[in-house]
Specification:
Helix content: 55-70%
Shape: globular
Number of strands: 2
Distance between the termini: 106 Å
Radius of gyration: 44 Å
Strand content: under 5%
Structural class: mainly alpha
Largest sheet: 2 strands, parallel
Strand order of the largest sheet: 1-2
């Protein structure tokens, strides 16, 4: 065969052979070992190359598909494993330059024409060459080829951003990597600069811009991984830095920018390169290399990048001016820089946003690198920088862009650089950025708030806040269209002033206060009458004055007397010179039609009046000299017996006129008048120690006015959310502001409201609560205050139950609404319903028949019971629709939020009867099964919480609990057919649990209250025996129309009866008569429960799974059965209980067998698994049930082992079921023999064998098999062991420790590390070390733990994983320190190495990261506390560790020097290392200072200084006073 293929070369070159055959032959020759051809690989590659070169040079005509197949053939060769192996073995394969040139030509063709013909194959060839170092040398040897390729590849991506070209970005990534390696070896800086600026600058900048904008990562593209995009951007930045900003170019930049001539010695290769920045800028601004709209965005994004690269490359001491000089040149590239010069058309908002973001980045670079030194700029450089920043500030202020957040941020940075930059235009700045700015978007509001905050902060430091206020007042008082202005003090600016004014000295506050007052009186007040603009200005000034007065720091007894006098005088001036003249304008004769200007004056006057009253009260309380000033107004300090006025000097009739005027509309004035009445209430309560009748009348009047003032507004349809600022109260926000005022002062108001007002208040509270999830989520999304948010806060407030009158009124309103819905669903005669369920129609509990429930309850028990029983047995007169059910469910959800366990007796009973009536109501066909189940669960949860309340006995005075039991089950048996759900549906299982809990609570009350237990239990059992479901179950004749749901309801009720009766029978053994009666009842209950359980288990067996209800009941039945038999054995057959056969032995044994087979499947359902494990635990207590042919211990152990080893069961589930298995294992070990224990121990040791990790039959998840053995060890350690079993376990302990060490080493070698195994291993190791104190005798076995701790991964973990692994590793180390001190002392270096790993990991995780938030900081803080605790334990053993203390300190400071720690983490670690420094003596300190490296030494000096200053001084002070 070899001879056949020896003429391949001739056939490939033959003109008679078709190209189809040539390609087939070439392909076969490459892959076939039978083809004998000297240098075959090179020959075949050259043949394909020559064919393509001839075609592209027009020397050969080929079809397009042949050309494409030739490219694919070369691509396949370049990517073949055969070629890689040949190159790896040293064989040389030469790529001719002609192939590289046609590759570059094809890429250039793709970029220019947009044609994608053969592009995938060409790029594949390119990738194959560049990814193989032996082949890539042809590019790296000819630098111009890779520059050309890189340029054209970037243009391909940039000019066809929408085209999906596979491999393009991988090839660009490879090409950039090769070019960077060449660039770093380049010795000619001129050549590198020329390559970058001539060929690469433009395409690279365009590509970087498109990558930054996410062009290829948006939905629908999906061809660029984000990580690859980031890598390419980083490579582009490195290329630009290495080409345009080399260190060798610094003299040229200085010559160009600073006019510094270079010396001859520095010229060298740079003699012809005199203007590098001009070259870069020229290439950047050159027209035509991309679309004009795209080029503007590219230029903008590139300006910030180029400036950053320049500063990073050349910024050092003395080069600050050079770095600044670049800024104007690059800024001139932006379009906004030419607005004033060329008067070009205004840019769009998106254009402004783009360019201002760049300006912000430039200014931030200046600020962060401290390029601007004010003194140096003024003295040395003639304010060059200052003039540029002034020009920029004028540009920004002359072209205000309030909708753009970056505009505010640019001004903020300029202000932080030097306030004088903006001060000449301060008034225009305040106008465009604050007073006249239309800012509505949240992000823009935050940016505006940041600017205003910086403005006030700056002028506060300069002590020039009055100067700033003067400018603000000047802007406000300018002639302007006031109606178009937004409120001056919205949430953002108000927050700034609220933060600023408390920090100002009193003189500046009073100066600002006086300025506002003077401008108001001189410029606004005289022209106020009839002028709407002036009225609006008065409102703005009032808001500003309110903010100054309210947020200024209050005076106290130690305040200087001149300040107190000036404050007193200013307060008098506000009242006499401003508030009263404004109020007088409201008392003038008014026309019939409302005047808008008068409304604004009303708002302004009442805002100032309310502010004055509030501040006057606070000053009077906190500052004694304020009231005693001789200049105080008459009437401001009333006699103790007189009642306070709304405002001093204002008569009551005048207030009547003002109240009539403000009542005409919802406005700020009405809100402030409510505040005035509230302030008067507070003053009244403060000044009247014993409330007189006159004071009470005044308080009630004020409370009624406040509530009544806004009644009409709360029913209006149109309202808006409120930001909480008094200045933004308007007709739309007034309802929310009024409701906020009322709710915020409920503790004051509710004591003085009449019952009708309380009912109104409760109705509004209920109506404004969000009653659905959609309403609640929409309310949460709203950032401002809404009615729903306020009402929800009241409902969940801990103070709400303390306001008894409002709480009762709300409960009455709630239950009345529920009753109204029930009455609306009445189908028959309302009079009959009123007779049957009278509590639905009672509107006041005080008039209710239950209001005086006591020993002589007025309602006979039998009447209520009979009414409810007739309701559930017959056709219910009430039938609810789906819509009504939704409404009532919403009300019940609200009721769930109340504290029902502390209701008064009549309210408690009314709620109980109402909820019971609701629960037994009939539902129509429009109510779905899930909705019905949710409704009934809510009802019975609420009934259960009522039964736990302090007045639960009030229900017993009108109903027997046995009757409640009967009513509940009768209604549920009747409604079971409506539940169209499966028996294992989660909602049905939850419903059974809720109903069972309620029934159990009813039965527990019988025992706790000692309410004739025998009689009541007998009635309950008689009822259950009579019901059809139980009769059919005991007779064994089950009708076809019965559902499994009904069986399970009956089973739950009987199970709960057995659960409660069983312990009661045990407790009352000494009372023979009671025991006999209760034992008979228990026996009957067990018999009936067993019959029903047998039936349910039989039905469940048909589906091959035990129903969850059976699992939860069978354990309770077995427990009761065992209790019953033990009671009988105590009287009849002493000591023979073990030999008695339980009545349902067959059932228990069948369930036992089925549980063993189903246990792995049950592990995913925690309640079912818990019930199954509980049954197995009880099964061990009944040896008569144990099979004769097999060991129960062995069967259960193997079944549990199978559960833990099942790979389908997640680790989280295993951790959840561990607590349930502990009780089972405790019982197993108590009952099991020594041989059983030996068998279990052998299985565990086999599971821990490290060979399990390599076994073929466990390859599916070998770690799970090992994890099961580790979990079994943990379970054994949690059980009490004594005698021979304990001896067996501790003899096997060395083998266990060795196996755990090997398993950890194996798990940590895997990638990724099997943390699910490492964590439990550390837990077991720590438990063994703790419990083996004094038992583990060989120090070697303890020392193995050090090896485990040294390989446990602590780096590159996610925060949750780190939070799980670190405490466990620390626990192991702490166990060695605490329980094995002798071993630790002999291995101190190993101990310290392990501890140093923990310290290093905390330092690494606790560093301040560049990106991301500190959400994971609590995990690291907890770990740092553990490290601090370990330091304290080490320091407690001073003698042993003194020698090592300097090395511990050196290790700490060496690691701490590498990162910047969060303050909390640093503080904890330093507290620990201070304790180690206590062990160091002076020579140790000197040794550290001398031996540590320079950078680390500085950290140590700082640490030692803090140690001496804080820690040592503190402890020496403590010792000084210690006896």
């Amino acid at each position: 065969m070899a001879a056949v293929y020896s003429g391949i070369s001739l056939k490939l070159k033959s003109k008679t052979t078709s190209w189809e055959d040539k390609l087939k032959l070439a392909h076969f020759s490459w892959i076939s070992h039978q083809c004998v051809l000297p240098n075959k690989e090179q020959v075949l590659l050259d043949w394909a190359r020559q064919s393509l070169v001839a075609f592209y040079k027009k020397k050969l005509e080929l079809k397009e598909d042949i050309v494409e197949r030739l490219w694919i053939y070369i691509d396949n060769i370049l990517h073949s494993r055969k070629l890689q192996n040949l190159l790896k073995n040293g064989k040389t394969i030469n790529l001719q330059i002609s192939l590289i040139k046609i590759i570059n030509e094809r890429v250039a063709e793709f970029s220019l024409s947009g044609s994608q013909r053969n592009i995938c194959a060409v790029l594949g060839c390119c990738q194959g060459i560049l990814s193989t170092p032996a082949l890539a040398v042809i590019y790296t040897a000819r630098q111009e080829l890779i520059v050309e390729l890189l340029s054209q590849l970037c243009w391909v991506a940039c000019r066809q951003p929408g085209a999906a070209i596979p491999q393009l970005f991988e090839v660009i990534h490879l090409t950039l990597g090769h070019y960077l390696s060449i660039q770093q070896q380049q010795v000619n800086p001129r050549r590198a600069f020329g390559e970058v600026t001539t060929h690469l600058l433009q395409p690279c900048l365009v590509l970087r811009h498109l990558l930054s904008g996410g062009t290829w990562t948006q939905a629908g593209q999906g061809q660029l991984r984000p990580a690859l995009g980031r890598d390419i951007r980083s490579q582009i930045e490195a290329v630009l830095r290495g080409g345009a900003f080399q260190a060798e170019l610094l003299p040229s930049y200085k010559e160009e920018l600073l006019d510094q001539q270079q010396g001859d010695t520095k010229m060298g290769a740079m003699k012809n390169l005199l203007a590098p920045l001009g070259t870069v800028v020229a290439r950047l601004m050159e027209a035509g290399y991309c679309e004009p709209s795209l080029q503007a965005a590219v230029v903008a994004s590139s300006v910030a990048l180029l400036y950053k690269l320049f500063v990073d490359s050349y910024l050092k001491e003395g080069n600050q001016l050079l770095c600044f000089k670049v800024l104007p040149r690059l800024f001139s590239c932006l379009r906004i820089s030419h607005l004033q010069e060329e008067q070009m058309q205004a840019l769009s908002t998106s254009d402004w946003t783009t360019e201002l973001l760049v300006v912000e980045q430039l200014l931030n670079s200046v600020a962060s690198n401290t390029l601007y030194n004010i003194a140096a700029d003024r003295i040395r450089h003639g304010e060059t920088q200052f003039h540029f920043y002034r020009h920029l500030a004028e540009l920004l202020i002359n072209h205000p862009q309030a909708p753009v957040p970056a505009w505010f941020r640019c001004l903020k940075v300029l202000l932080s650089l030097n306030h004088l930059i903006l001060e000449p235009d301060l008034d225009d700045l305040l106008a465009s950025a604050w007073i006249d700015a239309e800012v509505t978007e949240l992000r823009t509001q935050k940016a505006q708030e940041g600017l205003i905050h910086t403005l006030f902060q700056t002028y506060a430091k300069l002590r020039q806040v009055p100067r700033l206020f003067e400018e603000v007042l000047g802007v406000i008082c300018r002639p302007a269209a006031e109606a178009l202005r937004l409120p001056v003090l919205a949430a953002g600016p108000a927050a700034v002033l609220r933060e600023c004014f408390p920090e100002l000295p009193p003189s500046q506050v009073l100066d600002s206060w006086a300025l506002v007052l003077e401008r108001f009186q001189s410029l606004v007040l005289p022209d106020l009458r009839g002028d709407m603009d002036m009225a609006l200005k008065s409102l703005s000034l009032s808001s500003l004055l309110h903010c100054v007065m309210v947020h200024a720091r209050s005076l106290d007894g130690s305040s200087p007397l001149p300040v107190v006098r000036r404050t007193r005088h200013t307060m008098d001036e506000v009242l006499q010179g401003l508030v009263k003249p404004l109020l007088d304008l409201l008392r003038e004769p008014r026309p019939s039609a409302p005047e808008p200007w008068r409304q604004r004056v009303s708002d302004s006057a009442l805002l100032l009046a309310h502010t004055w009253a509030q501040v006057d009260t606070v000053l009077g309380l906190s500052c004694g000299p304020y009231r005693s000033e001789p200049g105080a107004l008459a009437g401001t300090a009333p006699e103790p017996s007189s009642l306070p006025l709304l405002l001093p000097g204002m008569e009551a009739k005048h207030w009547k006129e003002i109240e009539e005027f403000t009542a005409q509309s919802n406005s700020l004035g009405k809100y402030c008048l409510e505040q005035l009445h509230l302030q008067r209430m507070k003053n009244t309560l403060l000044r009247t120690s014993v409330q007189s009748e006159e004071a009470l009348c005044a308080l009630r009047h004020d409370a009624a006015y406040i509530l009544g003032s806004g009644k009409a507004s709360l029913t209006q349809g149109m309202m808006a959310s409120w930001d909480g600022q008094v200045g933004t109260v308007s007709a739309l926000t007034y309802p929310v502001a009024h409701w906020h005022l009322v709710v915020s002062n409920l503790t004051i108001l509710t004591s003085y409201l009449c019952p009708d007002d309380l009912r109104y208040l409760a109705s509004i509270l209920l109506r404004t609560l969000p009653t659905s999830k959609a309403q609640e989520s929409s309310a949460e999304e709203e950032p401002d205050i809404t009615l729903e948010k306020i009402s929800k806060a009241v409902l969940h407030s801990p103070l709400f139950p303390e306001m008894q009158s409002l709480h009762s009124a709300f409960l009455l309103c709630l239950t009345t609404s529920c009753g109204g819905i029930l009455c609306a669903g009445a189908q028959g005669d309302p009079a009959l319903l009123r007779q049957q369920l009278p509590w639905l129609f009672e509107e006041d509990y005080r008039e209710s028949r239950f209001a005086k429930v006591g020993s002589e309850g007025v309602e006979p028990r039998g009447e209520i019971t009979q009414n409810l029983l007739s309701l559930v047995r017959g056709d219910s007169p009430i039938q609810l629709t789906g819509e009504q059910l939704e409404s009532i469910l919403g009300l019940l959800e609200v009721l769930s939020a109340l504290q029902l366990d502390s209701l008064l007796a009549p309210y408690h009973m009314r709620c109980f009867l109402l909820l019971l009536s609701v629960a037994v109501t009939t539902l129509d066909s429009s109510c779905s099964s899930p909705l019905t189940l949710r409704f009934l669960m809510t009802c019975y949860r609420l009934l259960g919480s009522l039964q736990r309340g302090k007045n639960a006995q009030s229900v017993l005075r009108v109903m027997y609990l046995s009757d409640v039991f009967e009513i509940t089950l009768t209604s549920l048996f009747k409604a079971r057919r409506r539940f169209l759900v499966e028996v294992d549906d989660p909602s049905w299982l939850e419903f059974l649990q809720v109903v069972g809990t309620f029934l159990e609570q009813l039965l527990q009350v019988l025992i706790q209250r000692k309410l004739s237990a025998g009689l009541n239990f007998g009635k309950i059992l008689a009822f259950l025996s009579r019901c059809q479901l139980c009769t059919e179950a005991t007779s064994g004749k089950w009708s076809e129309n019965q559902t499994p749901l009904g069986q399970q309801l009956l089973l739950v009720s009987l199970t709960k009866l057995c659960q409660v009766l069983g312990p009661l029978v045990k407790e009352q053994k000494q009372h023979d008569e009671a025991l006999e009666e209760l034992s008979e009842l228990l026996q009957e209950a067990v018999q009936q429960a067993g019959a029903v359980l047998q039936l349910c288990a039989t039905c469940g067996a048909r589906g091959h799974r035990l129903p969850p209800a059976v699992l939860s009941s069978v354990g309770s039945l077995l427990e009761a059965d065992v209790a019953l038999q033990s009671g009988h054995s105590g009287r009849e057959v002493p000591g023979g209980a073990d030999h008695m056969l339980l009545p349902h032995a067959t059932l228990y044994q069948a369930v036992y067998s089925q549980i063993l087979s189903e246990l792995p499947a049950l592990a995913g359902d925690t309640p079912s698994f818990q019930a199954a494990v509980q049954f197995l635990t009880l099964f061990f207590l009944a040896p008569e049930l144990h099979p004769q042919k097999e060991s129960v211990f062995t069967s259960v152990f193997q079944s549990v082992r199978k559960v833990l080893a099942d790979p389908a069961i997640p680790v989280q589930v295993v951790e959840e079921i561990e607590p349930h298995l502990r009780a089972l294992f405790t019982q197993m070990l108590e009952v099991g023999t020594t041989e059983d224990f030996r068998m279990a121990l052998q299985c565990i040791l086999q599971g821990l064998d490290v060979s399990n990790m390599w076994r073929a039959d466990l390859q599916k998840d070998p770690a799970q098999a090992v994890l099961s053995a580790v979990t079994l060890v943990k379970l054994l350690l949690s059980c009490p062991l004594d005698g021979e079993k304990a001896s067996l376990f501790w003899r096997a302990c060395p083998q266990v420790v060795t196996a755990l060490t090997l398993q950890t080493r194996e798990a940590c070698q895997e990638q990724p590390v099997a943390l699910a195994l490492v964590g439990p291993v550390l837990d077991v190791l720590a438990a063994l070390l703790r419990q083996g104190e004094g038992t583990i005798s060989n120090p070697h076995h303890v020392g193995l733990a050090f090896g485990v701790l040294l390989i446990v991964p602590l780096d590159h973990l996610k925060p949750p994983e780190y939070g799980r692994i670190f405490p466990r590793a620390h626990n192991v180390l702490f166990s060695i320190l605490q329980c094995h001190p002798k071993v630790m002392l002999k291995a101190i270096p190993s101990f310290l190495n392990c501890f140093h790993r923990l310290v290093c990991s905390v330092i690494h995780e606790g560093r301040q990261k560049d990106k991301g938030s500190a959400e994971d900081l609590p995990v690291v803080l907890e770990c740092a506390r553990l490290v601090e605790r370990m330091y304290s334990h080490i320091a407690a053993q001073a003698e042993e560790f003194r020698v090592f203390s300097p090395f511990m300190v050196a290790q700490y400071v060496t690691e701490a020097q590498k990162v910047t720690l969060y303050p909390g983490v640093k503080g904890l670690l330093q507290e620990g290392i201070y304790l180690i420094l206590d062990l160091c003596i002076e020579p140790d300190i000197q040794f550290l200072r001398a031996s540590l490296p320079p950078g680390v030494r500085d950290i140590f000096k700082e640490l030692h200084s803090d140690y001496v200053k804080y820690h040592k001084a503190k402890h020496e002070g403590e010792r000084r006073y210690t006896v």
